[in-house]
Specification:
The protein is α/β, with parallel strands linked by helices and about 230 residues long. The protein contains 9 helices and 10 strands. Helix 7 links the parallel strand 7 and strand 8.
């Protein structure tokens, strides 16, 4: 569903990503792993149209998306849940969800019931302001808002950061259900090795802005992942 080939990215004169290539399959979770500063967030931003790549190709379901805006990337089926969530604090939960309509035709401006089934707390807090939610509730809102866009590819940047354990479990359950539906490819950036290994079907390890290793879960172990991240 997602193919990234030889992707380079610069911030000004500084090169951040070098020849990044990986793919993410429909109905699977691909975990992008690596220590802080290796370029994981920059890679997601490049895929999502937040920052223009310097070279290489990105395709969603065979359709080229590189060098397009974030709006165009969303229309091709890329949904991005950023680190820090970026919830609109003065808008209600419902209004935050409705911002996902921006890349959809008017005939599809409705919130599917399954979004509230995944995150029941949002159903009870539709009128509450986004800024009044807890960190875990904001994370659920950010994921739900991304799902409104009906993505083919869901990009998640550190969804467990600063989140209480019971909400981490709820997010994990939601991602497992989305994977089982087989409708999208999920790309997960995560520092929590237990969470990432429990969910991941394949792993892409990054180091210094490059892909260090690509491995399927069947050929890996959690201890191997921890050891690789410690290097």
């Amino acid at each position: 569903m997602l193919d990234v080939t030889d992707l380079d990215l610069h911030y000004g004169q500084s090169q951040i990503l070098y020849d990044i290539s990986f793919h993410a399959d429909q109905g699977q979770i691909t975990a992008l792993m690596g220590n802080n500063g290796v370029g994981k967030t920059s890679l997601l931003k490049a895929i999502a149209g937040r920052h223009p790549a310097s070279g290489g190709d990105v395709k969603v379901d065979g359709q080229p998306t590189r060098s397009v805006s974030a709006y165009d990337a969303a229309r091709t089926g890329i949904a991005y849940v950023p680190q820090g969530r970026e919830v609109f604090p003065m808008m209600s939960v419902m209004e935050n969800l409705e911002t996902g309509f921006a890349c959809l035709p008017k005939s599809e401006h409705s919130i599917p019931d399954y979004v509230f089934d995944l995150f029941p707390v949002l159903r009870d807090m539709q009128a509450r302001r986004g800024g009044d939610l807890s960190g875990g509730q904001q994370q659920q809102l950010a994921i739900a808002r991304a799902l409104i866009t009906k993505p083919k590819v869901l990009l998640l940047d550190e969804p467990t950061e600063g989140i209480q354990p019971n909400v981490i479990d709820q997010i994990g359950d939601a991602l497992q259900l989305l994977r089982s539906q087989g409708k999208m490819a999920i790309v997960l950036v995560e520092q929590n090795a237990d969470f990432a290994f429990g969910l991941g079907d394949s792993f892409v390890l990054m180091e210094g802005g490059r892909v260090k290793r690509r491995v399927a879960k069947a050929d890996y172990s959690k201890q191997s992942l921890i050891d690789d991240l410690a290097l």
